[in-house]
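Notes to self after the call with IL:
- keep both proteins in one doc
- input above output, always
- annotate only the second one for now

Protein 1:
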Amino acid sequence: MAKLIKSFLGYCCAVVLLAACSSHSGKDDGLEAQAPFVPLSCIAVLPASTSADVDETISYEKAQTLEQGAAYATEVMQRVLQGKAKVRFVSSDQMMSLVPDISGGISGTVAALGQKLNCDGVLLTTVRQYRQRQGTDYSVDAPAAVDFSMVLRHSTDGNIVWSADFREEQESVLENLFSFGKAKSRGFKWVTVEYLMEQGIQDRLRNCPYLQ
């Protein structure tokens, strides 16, 4: 059963990766792709998946780290979106019960999920990097780094209505003078990977017109 879920999430992950490649430029600007606004009455938020589901070259150790990142991303999304009337969270247990009865590619899968959950939108999130800093608040050998993407699909036709990504490897002010404002807001500290992930998710979801 777990393999069926990973297979489904892996397929979704591949689609998310393609969408992110088409919308991202630069290091951490996270350009967002938006289709003409179509109101959604309910958005099903799936547990975050990882790029390891579709990339067999990723080592076991990195895959385990990405799984930790996906679990934390899911936790943050639930925290950020808690209380929003149109949001419905889908747990791993629910996925286990829904996936075996679903087929028909990504559009068919999203459509079936939407019908089963009575939601006209499905949000897919993929974690591609989740690297903890090596060091302390004021001295590091390697900074924290996060890379993830989000894709919101209309369940009726599977079309992407919104997508965004976030990619940042923290830099010192000496490496990039333009990062001064961001460094100041962080107290000129080297932040943890959890901080980067949470800030990235909050920022992207805050700017999603379907989650206002």
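Protein 2 (the one to annotate):
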Amino acid sequence: MYKKIIFVFLSTFMTAPLIAKEYRCGWLLNPTPANFYFIDKEGEWGLSEQGMSSPLSDQSWDNMPESNDNEFVRINGNYGFSCVCLNVKTNKKNRRILEIYKKSKSLLLKRCLEDRELPNIYSANKEEYLKVDRVSDVLEADFNGDGQLDKAILVSDDYLYLYFGDSKLEEEKGEMKQVLSKSLTDFMQIVGQKVSLKTNNKGSLIIQSEHRESASLSSETIILAYRHKQFVVAGYRYQYEVVRDPTATQSCDINFLNRKGKHNGTAFTIAKKAVKASDWTRDVVPKQCRFEK
């Protein structure tokens, strides 16, 4: 009798750590109907799979966070992913979420993108995820003027992906189509310590890189515009400043669309037309802008 009680006690004690109630933050994915996954710093956890019974109760589903359209990334019609925090009971052995306590909350996408403990995941493709070490910046804007939001994704301050929203489909069925992937080392002479994505009132995509040293600051900007059904490099800027020595400042500003530029304030013209973004390399930069520090 005592042996049986001891065995039951030990069995309960040994299995208890495998099932735990925890507060976890990360990516909540719903890529296709009835398929739900959660990804945090420890990896992927299953919630439900199409065609299989889910351990989650109706109350657990009611406790799922409400979707915020501004912070939800659609990858397949109405399906996609968001950044959330969940109060959950997990089975660590089976990598499953068994229950969701309380009402969970959605977070800003930026929260998950900037969390260095989380694996980054971003997708603008119906069938596959783009899993990368670090998504540095994400920008949504209408780059091609069709009324649909497009996406620019900067990966690890090193690689740029551009996707178009499909204006031919109804909004709820909209998908994203990759139209460009390009290494920043091809785009720019320097890949700085800080690289960011911006847009202007014309819908152009602006890639800005900055590199700061103890006594100097270098900044470089590429402007991509959508012309004749393709992205072209419409503009290029470079500036090099030396702290406490304004005479050492060098600058260059080029508009490839009108073939005009300025080098240290002096105007010049260029022979080259605007080059397709996919064909652009550092060698295309006019000699007036190839500075040696």
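Annotation: The chain has two domains: 2-112, 119-289. Residues 2-15 form the longest helix (14 residues).
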